[in-house]
Structure prediction request, 378 residues.
Amino acid sequence: MTSVVIVGGGVIGLSVGWRAAGHGLAVTVLDPRPASGASHASAGMLTPAAEAAYAERDLFTLGIESMARWPGFAAELTALTGQETGLRREGTMQVAYDSSDQAVLAEMQALRESFGAPGQWLTGREARAQEPLLAPGVRSALLTPDDGSVDPRLVTRALLAALDRCGATVIRRQVAEISASNDRVSGVLLADGSQLEADWVVLAAGAYSPMVAGLPAGSAPPVRPVKGQILRLRATPSTGLVRRTISAVVRGARVYLVPRDSGELVVGATQEEVGHDTQVTAGGVWQLLRDAQAVVPSITELSFGEACAGLRPGTPDNEPVLGPSELPGLVLATGHFRTGVLLAPVTAEIVAGFLATKHLSPLATPFMPGRFAGLASS
Prediction:
């Protein structure tokens, strides 16, 4: 049986592992603390249309493809494990707080229309009629009804259970090095000195991908960590939540509010180029609360649940890296930046399909590692 080792147990690595096991491959996922990194911190927005202003057309197309797969992906997980994913399909409302922010929103609308994904333009009054908790100062809004969200903590929990049901193995140990023999991947060396042989190694370690030893020059993309601080608040008996995800532009900065059926409201997220620092800062918390309160004043009445930070894996073009690397036997599934949760179903399909058939889906063509020739980390 073909053996696959997946380095990284976030939503991408776990999804690839589940789908690879479904192809009949012998799967082992390696991560000292699976589901504890960026996936744990993520808000779980499924917003290919709302994010279009920050995406290339190819990434937008991939996001739409993955969004179409999410209902089936979630339903399969729940049917197999009995665990929910928190999937919601209420759409996203992007709001503008003042005239300058309104101009930014208009640019987003124009770009989405060029992608073939127009939203519904709302006046401030129309927006408040749909979301009464919005501040009186909201000038206008753009509704994208097909967007949604999931709870990544529920998703990764269900994926771990699905891997167990499918006979895959999750080993909670650190990978020290990717091993190669005769110019092809042969497995991995673990931090405890043990060796694990494999026909294929999938590198899905997010922001830590280029730090895995044993990668020849040209085999690892230049992935960088981009810190994001995020808050979790909870509804009280006297204070409700917005009905759908609210994405706002406030004084030129973005903030989003993602409601959960459990009564939780996720507020995020900062975007900081500070290396592998995951400390929560007073300034980050203040910025998020300030901007969120400007859009939904009643959030100050919610109870405070948690503040955390995760590291998004960014690439020079902020698009993922999918497919076989220059080192035979090594497959990359990393660099998803802000879209890891959104792209998990389609990434899993692409990578698992390649492992099983050695044929790469055309969907991966714009995201192959070769586009970073000359820039890859050594």
